[in-house]
């Protein structure tokens, strides 16, 4: 599956085991010669069971830990904590912008700057509006980007636990070319986000965590939809033609 061009952002027991083994060796070396033979016998006696344990581990404890790596654990925690579905978040975001159209929506962790005072915004940047208290840092949120007819992007942050908007702001970094690109994408996108998600979830069952409009390497305007399978916590990225709704490809991220 070709990668889509994305919108610009709106802006450690192994050591202990080794030390333990070293301590045992030092103790063995300090024992009398009569004790060394018993240590050797004990080591020979324990070797078979140790080998057997190592042989069994890939099918038991080893496979279990490998199946839930850091990324999967993060997905599980994020999806499980989010109570607001993508479609409800999308509806809420679009209502914040007159004549707005959704172009990006992502489930993510709330940044540390979510509670920053608007007065602390960098000089020349758009000060955000904060109509509701922000969730705590690390809590799930939906970050949406909604475009006006002229291509101006608005960022809408929504608490994924209660569905309330806690921050809105106009993208301060857009230039005229950026706005033109957005309007061109929207003009070519005959499929709504809802239609794109329907097509994607017919191919990959699970929870939608990201929907984004962009173009691929073939200059086709596409919707990229990320779907997380709650049985194994793999993420499947599905590319949907934004003009006709056909699925162009999909990629499963098992890491």
Distance between the termini: 17 Å
Oligomer: single chain
Percentage of residues assigned to helices: 25-40%
Amount of beta strand = 15-25%
User: What is the CA-atom radius of gyration, in angstroms?
Assistant: 26 Å
Number of strands: 8
- Please work out how many helical segments DSSP would assign: 7
Query: What is the 3D shape?
Result: globular
Mean pLDDT: 80
Helix and strand content put the structural class at alpha+beta
Main sheet strand line-up: 4-3-2-1-5-6-7-8
Could you describe the largest sheet, including whether it forms a barrel?
A: 8 strands, antiparallel
**SSE order, one letter for each helix or strand:** HHHHHEEEEHHEEEE
Which residues sit in consecutive blocks of at least 5 with pLDDT less than 50?
11-65, 117-125
Key features of this structure:
single chain, 255 residues, eight-stranded antiparallel β-sheet, alpha+beta, 7 helices
Structure description:
This protein is an alpha+beta fold and 255 residues long. It has helices at 14-30, 33-56, 61-67, 70-81, 86-95, 176-188, 193-203, and strands at 101-109, 140-147, 153-159, 165-170, 207-215, 221-228, 235-241, 247-253. An 8-stranded antiparallel sheet has the order 4-3-2-1-5-6-7-8. Strand 3 and strand 4 (165-170) form a beta hairpin. The longest helix is centred in the N-terminal third of the chain and has 24 residues, at 33-56. The model is unreliable at 11-65 and 117-125 (pLDDT under 50).
